Every structure is written in C-alpha cells, then in structure tokens.
C-alpha cells in the first residue's frame, strides 16, 4: 500500500511530489508540520507550512523561503493533493493529509488531544495510512488533567508567599500554554519570563493568543518577583540566572515529569505533568478513531505501540527515523 511514500533516515519522502515531510537535512522541497527544531529547520529550497509555522521558522531559523498553507487549504504538487489539518500540538502545528492514486495518508507530526487555549485543536481524519508519533507510547504515560497541575502550581505559590515558583517550560508552545492556563485558572498577577521567551510570546500575541501581563525577569528585583510565577527555559532552572530569584520553588512542565527519576535528575521540587503530546490512551484512541488500514509509528516508543496494534489485529510498522528527539528536553 502507498508505494509512493517512502520512509528513510532523513524523513518521509513523497515521491510523486518530489517533497520531504519534516526532513532532517536541507532538501529542495519540504512540507513542515510545525516549528520545533526536530521537525523544522532552515536551508530548504522551499518550505510549505501554515502561516504560523512559517512565522515561527522565520523567528527561530531566519528562513524566508516559505509558502503558506492555511488549515483546510489544499495545494497540489506533482499530482499529490496536500492539505494541512490542525494537530493541537503548538501554534500552527498541522497534520499533513496526502491524497494520491485513490489513497489517503495522514502524517501527524506531533499532536495532542487535550484542550489548549494557545492553538487549534486536533482534528481526526480518516485515512488508509496513519503515520503517528509515539513520544509517550508506553502505558505508564497517562497525563493528568491540566487543571489538576495548575492547582498544584498555584497551591505551592500560595503556600510560600515569600518565595517564587520558577517553572521550566520549553520556549515554543509549553511556556505559552502554561501562561494561558494560569490565566484561565484565574491567576491575574504579573508573570515574569526569561528573556529567551519574550520574542516567542510576542509572536503568539501577534496571532491573537492572549497571555496577559508579562514582565521581563531580567532587571526585576527579588522583592518584585516574590510570590510570583517566573517562567524560563528548562536550561535556566539551575544556572546562574536563577540564583538571583527569591528562594525559587523549582518546577518543570513536561510529560516526562511522570518519571520521578527525571525530576530528581533535574533537581525539580515541583514536577508538573503537562505535555503537548498525546499520552498512551490518546494515542490508541486516536488510532481507533481514525480507523486506518495501516499504521506507521515514529518519533518515540515505537515498539510498544506497534505491539498494541498487532494485538488488536492492526497492521503496523516502526519507521525508526533519525534526527527526532523530544523537544521537552530542549
């Protein structure tokens, strides 16, 4: 089935379109699902992506070669009809629907099924081949409701008003989601952010995402940040920058915080299980909902999800692409 789609170490090649999906090296034609560095990069001859993803790529990688494709719009390359469908991962993230020779192939990129005020929600698309991520493709990964994690964060803040809560969150997607969820849970106080997050937060605002009042942590006094939430990239949690904060309660927002050893390794006092990826139940439920004839699994815990498909009489294979890493570790 779908002999016109090939998986290789550099990505997924769509032969009749002579285009690659999320290639790991520069190519002449690239179809990009979203702006994280393990899916998007500069140097391509031309890139097709949503307007939001192209803006993110311009900001992060200085790219200028992009062709915008809005959600629901269909383009045609070499006889392949290509549509971009919301993936619910981060701002502008998309599944790519390919239609050729009477077959439909969906490449999800990264996706999640939870509500997120900062991006369009995932839309299931029936197809013949479903190429799914499996970042959290093990039964141990079942993400709690985000409201529960926000209550834990705000509870820690209110219990220690002389301290601040320093939340490590990836610069694209996670930081903005944490901020928006805090606002949705009634946290109207100023939120302080690391300088590395400012431009991406401004870009989200440019696309209509309300983040409320944000203040630069650099230059603020310890007294100003006492009793406040401060958000930084994970890499800043334990570096010199954080030492000037008022006795911070160190938190980390990641699906990997389900693994206690990871939290201990990063000296995280308050692990927040907040993920922008589907968990095990959502991965398996999505496969059932899409009802493909064949499942290709990539980007994560491939073997367990392939085994689950086998147990449920579904044809599946692991792609084992290279260059794919979890952005939560960035």
Automatic annotation (TrEMBL):
Superkingdom of the source species: Bacteria
Keywords, in A-Z order: Ligase
Entries under InterPro entries matching the protein: MBL (IPR050698), RibonucZ/Hydroxyglut_hydro (IPR036866), Xnuc_lig_assoc (IPR026360)
Signal sequence interval, chain numbering: none
SUPFAM superfamilies per record: Metallo-hydrolase/oxidoreductase (SSF56281)
Coiled coil regions in record: none
Protein name: DNA ligase-associated DEXH box helicase
Origin species: Rhizorhabdus dicambivorans
Lineage: Bacteria, Pseudomonadati, Pseudomonadota, Alphaproteobacteria, Sphingomonadales
